[in-house]
């Protein structure tokens, strides 16, 4: 909502309801989140189909101990959560572009239906 308020140049002290702002922008409540999710899955698809430095970084495993505290949320954990399959299996599906894109459409559309 902070991003939406900035887009409309509404000061933070203005007392306006979030629903009013969403109506003014003519967007659904989770539009921004779903858009980011679709783009992230699309980029994952692109990485898995091409042999690049980014692909090697994404698939790399580091040796040694991690720092103290809560573990950092990994990029592949989002993929696993959204598609309900392992990142390895998602990578295999990404080789078949149409199959993967169908799964992405299903993942983003079911998420909006569950939220409403």
From TrEMBL:
<dbReference type="GO" id="GO:0004519">
    <property type="term" value="F:endonuclease activity"/>
</dbReference>
<keyword id="KW-0378">Hydrolase</keyword>
<keyword id="KW-0540">Nuclease</keyword>
<protein>
    <submittedName>
        <fullName>Endonuclease-reverse transcriptase</fullName>
    </submittedName>
</protein>
<keyword id="KW-0255">Endonuclease</keyword>
């Amino acid at each position: 909502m902070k991003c939406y308020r900035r887009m409309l140049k509404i000061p933070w002290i203005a007392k306006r309801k979030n629903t009013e702002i969403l109506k003014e922008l003519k967007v659904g409540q989770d539009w921004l989140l779903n858009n980011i999710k679709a783009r992230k899955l699309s980029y994952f698809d692109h990485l898995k189909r091409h042999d690049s430095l980014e692909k090697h970084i994404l698939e790399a495993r580091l040796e040694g101990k991690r720092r103290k505290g809560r573990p950092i949320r990994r990029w592949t954990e989002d993929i696993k959560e959204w598609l309900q399959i392992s990142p390895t299996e998602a990578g295999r599906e990404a080789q078949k572009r149409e199959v993967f894109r169908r799964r992405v459409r299903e993942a983003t559309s079911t998420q909006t239906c569950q939220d409403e």
